[in-house]
# Entry
Amino acid sequence: MEIIVGRHINGIFINDLEYLLDDDKEPMRFKSEEEATRFLKSKGVTDDEIYCMVFKKVVGKQDAYFMTDQPEVCRSCGARTEFQEDSNGMQFHTCMDPACRYEYVLVSEGESS
Ligand SMILES: [Zn+2]
# Structure
């Protein structure tokens, strides 16, 4: 299990989450909340700011992608997917092709302001 770190845009809770990104512009992953907290503090983030952040668990080795405006199809084979959405709008997709069954996570990219 890994952790990705989200923050409500401009600190406003009704806004979408934006995620810490790595050099490849993919959500940055941590092995635990403790590791994420250490990283954030090393970047000068305060306890109050960390308190307002959302630590999302990414189950297993699931890959994470950004949502697009296009109908979602399997990022591996292009077949249709079924998904569940959690309260933060994060979608857990599973490929419906029995030969594939690729599982991955979609997160909203949010605004970059
Ligand atoms: Zn597939």
